[in-house]
Design goal:
The complex is a heterodimer of chains A (242) and B (211). Chain A is an alpha+beta fold and 242 residues long. Chain A has one domain. Helices cover 19% and strands 27% of the residues of chain A. Chain A contains six helices and twelve strands. Chain A has a six-stranded antiparallel beta sheet. The two termini of chain A are 30 Å apart. By secondary structure, chain B is an alpha+beta fold. Chain B has one domain. In chain B, the strands form two sheets. In chain B, strands 1-10-3-8-6-5 form a six-stranded antiparallel beta sheet. In chain B, strands 2-9-4-7 form a four-stranded antiparallel beta sheet, with helices on one face. The two termini of chain B are 28 Å apart. Classes of the chains: A alpha+beta (242), B alpha+beta (211). Chains A and B meet through helix 1 and helix 6 of A and helix 1 and helix 2 of B.
Chain lengths: 242, 211
């Protein structure tokens, strides 16, 4: 499910080290590939409408309108305004988690112990809440905007009693997900371990980000047609540009 | 699924209010008080959000709450955590047995996606949340995060499926929560007519508070 690379020249490439955080506008018609370089990575992700940042990724809406608790290729990531912030046009690992969220500083200290900047310099133990808040703060967003986040590359299943089970090994070296933006989308992400990952050692994995130019939005056909809901989601999104 | 009854008597409540079908509601509950939400006629989704009254930027945090209990549904024993990591309320009694944390609230916009473009002008929970928030003045759109749907049944399968099923609630079922801090309670008594979350028939719910 990957279009020929000749049709989508690479615009830019960047490595996010484990523990790193970044944010940028993914422009309408661009494709972002996020690659798990070593295997076992996790990326906590938030999306917003770049032009009107009160419009934010709404995971409950994304899940219920596609009748799914997992997100993978063919699914759309919806805003609270019924628009598609990004469509998952390709995915080699098959499951991205909506349950786990991000840890704060106190929770990271409980899970991994103390790891401060004084001792570890840039290897200090970072946490998802602060990493996302720092990036969001750069766009004048704040705590209110830290909604449910998506944890890319991680799989958490729910058993018949409703209990969670973190599934290790969901993502292998080289696994990737592609996000196609049918509207200008502010991407906020951080590369940190999934909160339910039982590894007691703080060891976040790096990610590679690759921006592609896509010649036509035909790349989104899988997502547009996977469910009738998504055809209407794209309709709502295109209304932004009439 | 275990059910836990409460020994509190409605006559002893310090506050009682009925929320009509499809109506918004906002009130405060003080630390130490108990809040009961009562499904009067059965199969009624009660979309609910909690905020710290001292600092309304502090709110119910769905992902932290689920993670800390390692369970996707809420019932007796569940502690509702805030986005600052503090316990806000605990569920002390529950005669329904399971409450949804993932379905969020219906909105005009999501109704266009889920059902049809011409459903935009039907009444919705987000309309209620905004109306109550903006009239109250302490809350606004950016405070509205993922809510709890009391009495709503949204099973998640081991394969990652998610469906809205007929309610498991019935007339007189209730959930009771003890507040650990002064909280603002924001409710939309769900007006959704397009799916079985209200049994296609939205009905009133009652709010009771005990000291």
């Amino acid at each position: 499910m990957t279009a020929a690379l000749t049709l989508r020249p690479t615009l830019y490439e960047e490595l996010v080290p484990g523990g790193g955080h970044t944010s940028f506008v993914l422009k309408r018609g661009q494709l972002l590939r996020i690659t798990d370089i070593e295997g076992g990575a996790n990326a906590s992700l938030l999306l917003l409408n770049a032009a009107e940042k009160s419009e934010r990724l709404n995971l409950p809406d994304s899940l219920k309108c596609q009748h799914t608790a997992k997100l993978t290729a063919g699914h759309c990531l919806y805003s609270d305004m019924g628009r598609v912030l990004a469509a998952i046009t390709a995915d080699t690992c098959g499951w991205h988690d909506s349950f786990g969220g991000v840890l704060n500083a106190e929770e990271v200290a409980e899970q991994y112990g103390q790891g401060n900047y004084q001792q570890l310099r840039n290897g200090f133990f970072r946490n998802g809440v602060d990493n996302l808040l720092v990036e969001m703060g750069k766009w004048n967003l704040n705590l209110q905007d830290l909604l449910m986040c998506l944890n890319l590359f991680s799989k958490v299943t729910v058993d018949s009693d409703g209990c969670f089970h973190f599934q290790p090994g969901n993502s292998k070296a080289g696994d990737h997900i592609e996000l196609y933006a049918p509207m200008d989308c502010l991407v906020v992400l951080t590369a940190l371990q999934h909160p339910m990952d039982p590894n007691p050692v703080y060891a976040p994995k790096p990610l590679r980000l690759t921006w592609h130019k896509v010649e036509s939005d035909g790349i989104s056909v899988l997502c547009r047609t996977s469910r009738p809901e998504n055809a209407r989601g794209f309709h709502n999104t295109e209304r932004l540009y009439i | 699924m275990t059910l836990t009854a409460s020994d509190k008597h409605p006559e002893a409540a310090v506050y009682r209010a009925t929320i009509g079908a499809g109506e918004p509601f906002l009130c405060e509950v003080k630390a130490g008080q108990s809040l009961r939400l009562l499904d009067l006629e059965g199969n009624q989704a009660v979309d609910t959000l909690f905020y710290s009254a001292q600092n309304p930027r502090e709110r119910y945090d769905a992902q932290r709450t689920l993670r800390k209990q390692n369970r996707v549904y809420l019932s007796t024993g569940s502690v509702l955590y805030s986005n600052l990591g503090r316990p806000m309320l605990s569920i002390t009694a529950d005669t329904c047995g399971r409450h949804d944390t993932l379905g969020g609230a219906c909105a005009q916009e999501s109704n266009t996606v889920r059902y049809a473009l011409d459903k935009r002008y039907m009444h919705s929970c987000r309309d209620n949340f905004l109306r109550a928030s903006l009239n109250d003045g302490r809350l606004n759109k950016s405070d509205i995060g993922a809510n709890i749907n009391f009495f709503m049944n949204v099973p998640v399968t081991p394969e990652g499926g998610l469906t809205f099923e007929d309610g498991i609630s019935a007339p007189g079922k209730y959930v009771e929560l003890k507040a650990h801090m002064d909280v603002i309670v924001l409710i939309s008594n769900c007006p959704q007519l397009n799916n079985p979350c209200n049994g296609y028939n939205p009905t009133p719910a009652e709010v009771l508070v005990w000291d």
